[in-house]
Amino acid sequence: MQYLDLGARVLVGVIFATALISKLGAGNFRAFTVSTGALLPYRFYRHRRALAIGYVVCEILIVVMLTVPTASPWGLALAAATLLLLAAFIARSMRSGDAVACRCFGGASRTPLGRPHLARNVALAALAAVAAAAAWPSGAGSELSLAPAVPVVGAALLLGVLVVRLDDLVVLLGPTARTASSARSSHAG
User: Which keywords does the record carry (predicted)?
Assistant: First the structure.
C-alpha cells in the first residue's frame, strides 16, 4: 500500500500542481474565472471570482499537503472531495447542454466539458480516496525501497502528463480524427 500512496500522491500532485501553475497568468486566471462562472447556478454567478480564488487556494493546499508525508492522507482526501465536486459541476453542465470550455489547465483549451472530463475526475477521485484510506491508519512516510519506487514515480508522472493533456488526446483519438484518417486512406487506394 505504500507504493499506491506514493503513486497516487505523485499523480494527483502533478495534476493539481500543473492546474495551479497554469492558472497563475492573468489571462489564464480570467478565463478560469469566466469558466467557473459558467458552471455555477445563476444566483451564484456574481461570486465567480471569489469561488475561483477559493478553488486556487484549495489547489495550493492539496499540493502542499501531498508533499508532506504525514499530511498526505488529508491532501488525498481533499483532492478526492474537490474532484467529486468538479465532477458534479461537469455533470450539471452536460445536463443543461452548456458548452463550457475546460479551463482546468489554463485558458488555452477550447474543448467543452464532457464525458472524458467527467470520467477523468471520477477516476482520479476514486484513486485519491482509496489511497487516502490506505494511508490513513499509520499515515504515509514509512520506509520505501528505491527499486520499486522509481517505476511507480515514473508511471505516475507519465500518467499525470497524459491526464493533463486529455483534451489533446481526445481530439487526436476522437471520432473526427478517425473519420478523417479513414477518408484519407480510402482516397489513397
Answer: Membrane, Transmembrane, Transmembrane helix
Question: Which pTM was predicted?
Answer: 0.78
Output the CA–CA distances (angstroms, integers) from residue 43 to 39, 49, 87, in the order listed.
Answer: 11, 14, 20
Length of the chain, please?
A: 189
Angle between helices 115-135 and 72-96 (to 10 degrees): 160
Domain count, the chain: 1
DSSP3 helix / strand / coil % (the chain, rounded to 5):
80, 0, 20
The three cell numbers of residue 48 are 465567480
25 residue type, one letter: G
Residue type, 109: S
Query: What are the distances in angstroms from CA 129 to CA 25, 122, 132, 170?
Result: 30, 10, 5, 26
Phi, psi for 112 (deg, rounded to 5): -70, 145
SS3 call for 150:
helix
Per-residue pLDDT tens digits for 119-159: 999 999 999 999 999 887 655 455 666 677 788 778 887 88
Q: Which domain holds residue 181?
A: 2-188
What's the distance, Cα to Cα, between the start and end of the chain in Å?
A: 53
Number of helices (H) and strands (E) in the chain: give both, helices first.
8, 0
